[in-house]
Design goal:
CATH architecture: 3-Layer(aba) Sandwich
Helix content: 40-55%
Number of strands: 6
Shape: globular
CATH class: Alpha Beta
Radius of gyration: 15 Å
CATH topology: Rossmann fold
Order of helices and strands: EEHEHHEHEHHEH
Number of helices: 7
Structural class: alpha/beta
Largest sheet: 6 strands, mixed
Strand order of the largest sheet: 1-6-5-2-4-3
């Protein structure tokens, strides 16, 4: 397989583009750039959840637990899918969203394009350390690696995989645009 973007089967007609992948993959950065380049609105699902709940993702996990978070994350994703209309959008999902079977099924049944932004574990870990955002797993590479390995098989069910290793945000966005014919 070459290093260019690879499309699984045939990518759906793009009315929305959902970016999935592990923390540090660049979902928000690439999503913002793609939105600007395509003239489409960009939304980060985690931001929607935080605004709706009035707490940060970290607070929700600490105070209410992962089960609660996954439930409200799924509800927020359902709302986004219900809101899809004739205006295309770019939506970045949190790292664990596309590792939940009900979210994968929801997006597949909605017929939207899902793009797995991938990278080496070492590079993703380094990117997380470089960011000012608190991420509980960024201090332990082995735990980070185990979680990545557990989620990767889900990410691979996306309609498109783009390797982000050693690439700029612009280069990754260009691969997405080219692969999906946007």
């Amino acid at each position: 397989m070459n290093s260019r973007a690879s499309v699984r089967e045939c990518a759906p007609k793009t009315q929305a583009l959902f970016l999935v992948g592990f923390m540090g993959a660049g979902k928000s950065s690439v999503g913002e750039f793609l939105g600007q380049r395509l003239g489409w609105p960009f939304e980060d699902l985690d931001v929607r959840i935080q605004q709706r709940d009035g707490r940060s993702i970290e607070q929700i996990f600490a105070e209410s637990g992962e089960h609660f978070f996954r439930r409200i994350e799924h509800e927020a994703l359902c709302t986004v899918v219900e809101e899809l209309g004739t205006t295309p959008r770019v939506i970045a999902l949190g790292g664990g969203a596309f590792a939940q079977p009900e979210n994968i099924e929801l997006l597949k049944s909605a017929g939207v394009a899902t793009v797995f932004l991938d990278g080496s574990v070492d590079e993703l870990f380094r990117r997380c350390q470089d960011q000012g955002r608190p991420r509980p797993l960024r201090s332990d590479l082995e735990l980070f690696r185990k979680l990545y390995d557990a989620r990767r098989e889900h990410y691979l069910s996306a309609s498109l995989r783009v390797d982000t290793s050693a690439k700029t945000v612009e280069a990754v966005a260009n691969e997405v645009v080219e692969a999906l014919g946007l």
